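Reminder to self: tokens first, then the designed residues, so the page reads top to bottom the way the pipeline ran.
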């Protein structure tokens, strides 16, 4: 009988891959529904503008409901609501993308780097983050937007990112403080690894689920914040977004005239996209904290047991 030998490096690699596959969370219904809804809206925002006309084109049709020529009817000036919805979806998603990226970089810079190096750098970063955290976001956004006459999507996104990154930085700082004191980080530091390599190889991979959760939350905040600003007339003046559609629908007395096709589609997409991102965020929270998955399973199991006990008790009462 011959004994087979295996390279220790290959064995360790296969063991790590096996552990990673076992630790990967399953595709839950919550995550699947969130990804399906969010992916459908994102595809609509990317593809639909190529197949519609000019959303600003004025026609003499006037205010009309959905008909053969217009899928979602027209506005008071005869503009195609479906074309506006397509471009508005792309505009709102652009705002969410820009704010998500800027929030990721700002929160990671002030939260992770300061917490790892510590000392005066961490204290100064923490002080600046606390100052930004106590400043009310929406009033500051309204003040900044009101003083800028020509507002673009980029400007609105930058303003929203500046006023919304501090909370994520505080969360990342607290988690980084706990990770930097772990044994494998201390071992890498003692072995002479460079600080940037320790940040990129040892600490950052542990923060990826948390970073993803913070980015999803920032996108939700950006889309809702932009919709609120546009509804108040302080949004981007040269672009269509879900908020600008609601603003023009309000000014055109769409609700009073019963023109539901003008304000229901953008409001419905805001609600659906926000709900989808919330489901994704809840699923990421379960990935970060496995206790949430076990609690969810225990709650579900207890709910099934209570239903079974209720049916048994009902049968006993009938007998």
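Designed residues (319 positions):
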């Amino acid at each position: 009988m011959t004994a087979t030998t295996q390279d220790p490096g290959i064995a360790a690699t296969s063991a790590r891959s096996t552990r990673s596959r076992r630790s990967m969370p399953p595709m839950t219904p919550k995550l699947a529904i969130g990804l399906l809804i969010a992916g459908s809206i994102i595809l609509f925002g990317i593809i639909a503008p190529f197949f519609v006309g000019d959303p600003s084109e004025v026609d003499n049709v006037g205010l009309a409901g959905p008909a053969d020529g217009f899928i979602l009817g027209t506005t008071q000036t005869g503009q195609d609501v479906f074309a506006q919805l397509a471009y508005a979806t792309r505009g709102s998603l652009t705002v969410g993308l820009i704010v998500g990226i800027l929030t990721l970089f700002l929160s990671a810079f002030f939260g992770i780097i300061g917490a790892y190096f510590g000392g005066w750098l961490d204290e100064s970063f923490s002080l600046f983050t606390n100052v930004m955290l106590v400043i009310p976001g929406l009033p500051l956004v309204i003040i900044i937007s009101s003083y800028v006459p020509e507002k673009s999507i980029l400007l609105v996104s930058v303003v929203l990112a500046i006023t919304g990154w501090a909370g994520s930085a505080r969360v990342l700082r607290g988690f980084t403080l706990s990770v930097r004191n772990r044994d494998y980080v201390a071992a890498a530091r003692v072995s002479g690894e460079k600080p940037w390599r320790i940040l990129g190889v040892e600490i950052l991979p542990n923060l990826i689920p948390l970073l993803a959760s913070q980015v999803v939350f920032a996108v939700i905040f950006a889309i809702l914040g932009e919709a609120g600003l546009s509804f108040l007339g302080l949004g981007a003046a040269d672009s269509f977004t879900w908020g600008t559609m609601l603003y023009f629908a309000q000014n055109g007395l769409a609700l009073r005239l019963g023109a539901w096709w003008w304000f229901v589609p953008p409001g419905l997409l805001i609600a659906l996209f926000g709900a989808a991102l919330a489901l994704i965020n809840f699923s990421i929270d379960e990935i970060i904290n496995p206790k949430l998955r076990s609690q969810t399973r225990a709650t579900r199991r207890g709910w099934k047991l209570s239903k079974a006990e209720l049916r048994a008790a009902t049968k006993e009462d009938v007998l």
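Residues 81-117 form the longest helix (37 residues).
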